[in-house]
Amino acid sequence: MPKIQVNKLYTLTGHNDSIFALVEGNDPRYFYTGAGDGMVVKWDLDAPKDGKLIAKLPHSVYALAIDDQRDLLFIGHNFEGVHVIDLNTNKEIWSLKITDHAIFDIKIYKNQAFVGTGDGVVTVLDIEERSILKHIKLGEKNIRVMALDVQKEHLAIGSSDNTVKVFDLNGFSPVKKLDEHTNSVFALRYSPDGKLLISGGRDAHLKIWETKAYKLQENIVAHMYAINYLAFREDGKYFVTCSMDKSIKLWETATLQLKKVIDKSRHAGHGTSVNKVIWSKYTHQIIAVSDDRTISIWEIELQ
């Protein structure tokens, strides 16, 4: 395998607090960030230094989600609810007061939005009706992260009770409970081909599950401290993890081998916890956000 080259392209500033949320747009030329300062900013990869403020909320923002079908941005406004922005106009078109807890993740599927909150509840919203369909109580601990497999119509939910619970989206019946983690689950993603589900969290371990029966395939001690998020390259051949240990790690999916470490000393990485990471479909660059209030963009050269 050729040597992987990493080149730091940009450090973007503008937020006044830790950046917690990061999502790629329906048009992947754009991405969106949300932070402890309540600001939601739109960034253009063709002119990355010119961020555009599209929302300013009184409380912090941990969760953002794109509704590809309607070109909407869902904002999880902590202790308040959900705000919905029309990305064609960058204007808010509706909002719902659904919780007085933190909103840690939002996922969109067909006409529904699933909102995971700090009281162990998944609130299901009807997007067309702009209303609450139901509240699903999964426990007392935070719902931290969710992942969708649209082929199987499964929703996996990671929480601070150390478990991943998998549900069928038709009727929300339980499929499997995965309880191999020893601490909160923060990172969760299905591989693009749907064959794997990868989870990570405060125990700094990656768990790799095959999705036919949700059996554990591999357990990797992956970071020094909590794994905050993970993201696949579009083709599924590689994925990246980011951590409270200030590093980003690049893994080969087929072998589960660590291929590169992006950190402050080697690649001008972040100086504090790296909270979210995405692998751009537009530029194939890696984008990350951190407690240090900055956004970093790296060019990755690999086969």
| Derived structural class | mainly beta
Number of helices: 1
Residue fraction in strands: over 45%
The main sheet comes to: 4 strands, antiparallel
Strand order of the largest sheet: 1-28-27-26
- Poorly predicted runs: none
- What is the N-to-C succession of helices and strands? EEEEEEEEEEEEEEEEEEEEEEEEEHEEE
Tally of DSSP β-strands: 28
Q: Mean of residue pLDDT? A: 96
Rg for CA atoms: 18 Å
N- to C-terminal separation?
8 Å
Silhouette: globular
Helical fraction equals under 10%
Question: Can you put this structure into words, describing what you see?
Answer:
- This protein has 303 residues and is mostly beta strands.
- The chain has one helix and 28 strands.
- The strands form seven sheets. The protein has a four-stranded antiparallel sheet, with no helix packed on it. It has a four-stranded antiparallel sheet with strand order 2-3-4-5, with no helix packed on it.
- A hairpin with a 3-residue loop joins strand 19 and strand 20.
- The chain is globular, with a radius of gyration of 18 Å.
- The model has no long low-confidence stretch (mean pLDDT 96).
